[in-house]
Amino acid sequence: MSKPKAIFCWSGGKDSSYCLHKVLTEELYDVKYLLTTINEKFKRISMHGVREELLHNQIESIGIPLLKVSVTEGTNDEYEKSMKAALLHAKSEGITIVIFGDIFLEDLRVYRENNLAKVAMKAVFPLWKMDTAILINDFVDKQFKTVVCCTNDGYLGEEWTGREIDKSFIAELPGQVDPCGENGEYHTFCYDGPLFKKKIDFTIGEKVYKPLEIKTSDDCSLPSNITTKGFWFCDLLPAQLE
Description:
alpha/beta, 10 strands, 6-stranded mixed sheet, 4-stranded antiparallel sheet, Rossmann fold, putative n-type atp pyrophosphatase, domain 2, 6 helices
């Protein structure tokens, strides 16, 4: 019996990497594409701020084709229209499942499920309700390698950007920060591990602060008790730009 065809929503970070590895290991779905939202103005992964070149390096190393959703304005309307077009393209190829690495944000899950229902597709959440402390430690134990590329200044400062996620990082996280950054506390770029055929080479570049702007629903909502003024981004430079 053939496996259901699926798209995997790929951010390039640790949760995506861990979740995709789990999906491929369990062999329940035939993953045809990795879907990523790209800001065409800056040629970077939306929210994470990672250069598109590094995304393509990940795609090449993993070996699953990229399905790109392009945005320029950053509005919800633009995002939803672009996402719908990409999903309908995938559906025309017999793909019915979209896989997400979300862990516990109920409103985000409902948002995704409602949008997929409009095109008669189904959402799957392999990491749903997993203990994030267990997950992040298993991520490190499985020899995944990742760096922090963005932090929410309501939780973490500039000094956390560019850091490797290892046991020391986990131990030093403030108590109000989810171990996996599921509330949007931090974002990451995964460059090595059991998912990849070869390591992604890069260097740490400039650190830049950007004040808070209205985000699309592709991103996580912010808890009301956190005062977020902006985000710190760490520019990751592909090997050829060193």
